[in-house]
DNA sequence: TTGTAGGCGTTATCAG
DNA sequence: CTGATAACGCCTACAA
């Protein structure tokens, strides 16, 4: 019995107070402290109280890292996104946080800048930290290297982006519906030439929206013209460039559907520079409904996305997967999109 | 010697492969694996290679949680901010991330929504996870309860907010300079009545800016009028309300200095609603220079803050504190502010 | 240069 | 109901 060195350890706490100290203070066994504090129902109330008092007095705080090691659960979720600075990211993040908070989980947030290499690095950072699950809000979700990392067994959800080649749990939005409503709105205003600024390549969402655009044009028997589809990048600059290219066309669209609000803002910048008025000279529709879209100098008609709700839904799904260790069949949840008509759309100019 | 149960453990890895497995695969001792992988220079190169190969083959990834427990270092930083969704937050976050990444640290990000209660909860979440350090980008930094948590010994930096009652390591901006330049600019344009939308209470930065505003007016011998100082909250809504109150004044300012760009946007919304033109009817200056400020429909004259640089500087300071365990004297780093003249300022209207 | 033997702070499993 | 004791996976003296 005298072999353990535990005894002399009892006195020396180098800064942090541990469960040992609480046990000693409360005059109970170490395991009792753990049981009492973690709310085991078989602990006598008086004991629990005694323990709690001791803990309080000593300023004891559990070490989540020790607990994580033991429980093989870190109570931490990893979030991978292209760019926090994109105005739509924080809303998703908030939704994720809503659930994480209520599940006592922390959030490890990483940016990938849309670069595969960075994404891999960040995924490793997350996995090495043994996060309980991953929320992927980033591109490259069908790259082999990414998939390899995903095979690791850590539960994950795709949010807003997905891999068409894999059956993953996914939360997205009904792009058909959103784009459809936008085109219907424009058609109703008499627009016959509708342009599209595409989202980045390697984005499933951008693909879906493109398809929905084509479908929408067909549905309203509008002209489909490859010149009216310009590649964007979800950023202002891309929208600006696309806008300039549109304006340079001889037969140019009377309405532009932008990949997202930031692209639409880019178009606004370009229009301003070119002396074109919106919606007098052409109509413009964004997508996302970021806060800024509603500011009166911008006043952008756009297709709203329920980002916070989507983030929360994805995280709920993730938590479910984490809880029931076994991976049942992947779930999908598609949120509605809603057209918000503001001041950037108006009747088509008579030709 | 036959008492240890280590041996039968060697075969059973329930999912994750551990350093044990690598040791066995490589035919070396467990500690050698650790040494080899963590780059100890006394490991023979051939051994290191052998180990690396084995690790690769088995798909071994270090468990940062186990390492954290052992090393008493989690390689994780906690970031506390009022709101990720505020457009200026992500830029700070990026700066923080720049350094964290290069230091192999992860970032645990929490929102407080400016609520003391939430801030305390989040701080506990962070501290329980034994983050190596804290970046505080949130209010309430002089509340006793917050200070108590800070006493815990975890290194921390104040970014953009600080406690005037405590000597903390702090990274901020030169508010005098920024506000001074703005007022000089307005005075130069002939403005004699300059209003201010104040930042939230309990914010040191808002206080500093208010002081700078008063100093600026004095320096240019301009009228100081309490009616021209309206409380805002750094949000659009607060700016909108303030704007309306300004417009309702009988003798109203010909120029408004907003607490931040979001407040300024709020004023723009209010002006639009009231049929007032900027800068024809009054001039407006924001503060932050968020990306949006440069978009042509907004085109806001503003005072730029080097957010990303500030975030990075704060984090560098923090890392330094973490490394040299001892807490030397707190450092301060003040960044310049720069007036960016755009289209929201113009000559004062003749009275 | 490599191997051995703790122990970091918890929780879980069993005996009492 | 409470109390020993063994892991969890890793790092680090110290010994060989």
Automatic annotation (TrEMBL), chains A, B:
UniProt keyword list: DNA-binding, Repressor, Transcription, Transcription regulation
Pfam families: LacI, Peripla_BP_3
Domain HTH lacI-type per the UniProt entry, residue ranges: 17-71
CDD domains: HTH_LacI, PBP1_LacI_sugar_binding-like
GO MF terms, alphabetically ordered: DNA-binding transcription factor activity; transcription cis-regulatory region binding
Domain of life: Bacteria
Designated name of the protein: LacI family transcriptional regulator
Organism, scientific name: Sodalis ligni
């Amino acid at each position: 019995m005298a072999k353990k060195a535990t005894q002399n350890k009892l006195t020396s706490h180098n800064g942090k107070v541990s469960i040992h100290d609480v046990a000693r203070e409360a005059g109970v066994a170490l395991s009792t402290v753990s049981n009492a504090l973690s709310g085991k129902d078989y602990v006598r109330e008086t004991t629990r109280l005694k323990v709690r008092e001791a803990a309080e007095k000593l300023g004891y705080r559990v070490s989540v890292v020790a607990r994580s090691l033991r429980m093989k659960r870190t109570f931490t979720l990893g979030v991978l996104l292209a760019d926090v600075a994109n105005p739509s990211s924080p809303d998703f993040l908030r939704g994720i946080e809503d659930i994480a908070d209520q599940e006592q989980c922390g959030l490890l947030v990483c940016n990938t800048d849309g670069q595969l290499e960075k994404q891999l690095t960040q995924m490793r950072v997350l996995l090495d930290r043994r996060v309980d699950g991953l929320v992927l809000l980033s591109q490259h979700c069908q790259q082999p290297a990414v998939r390899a990392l995903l095979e690791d067994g850590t539960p994950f959800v795709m949010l807003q982006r997905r891999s068409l080649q894999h059956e993953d749990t996914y939360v997205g939005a009904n792009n058909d519906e959103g784009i459809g409503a936008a085109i219907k709105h424009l058609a109703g205003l008499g627009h016959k030439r509708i342009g599209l600024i595409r989202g980045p390549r390697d984005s499933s969402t951008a693909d879906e929206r493109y398809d929905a655009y084509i479908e929408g044009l067909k549905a309203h028997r509008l002209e489909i013209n490859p010149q009216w589809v310009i590649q964007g990048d979800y950023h202002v600059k891309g929208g600006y460039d696309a806008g300039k290219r549109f304006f340079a066309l001889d037969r140019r669209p009377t309405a532009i559907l932008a990949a997202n609000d930031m692209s639409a803002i880019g178009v606004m910048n370009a229009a301003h520079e070119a002396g074109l008025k919106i919606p007098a000279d052409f109509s413009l529709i964004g997508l996302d409904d970021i806060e800024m879209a509603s500011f009166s100098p911008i006043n952008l008609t756009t297709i709203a996305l329920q980002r916070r709700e989507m983030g929360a839904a994805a995280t709920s799904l993730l938590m479910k997967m984490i809880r029931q260790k076994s991976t049942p069949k992947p779930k999908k949840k598609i949120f509605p999109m809603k057209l918000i008509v503001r001041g950037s759309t108006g009747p088509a100019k008579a030709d």
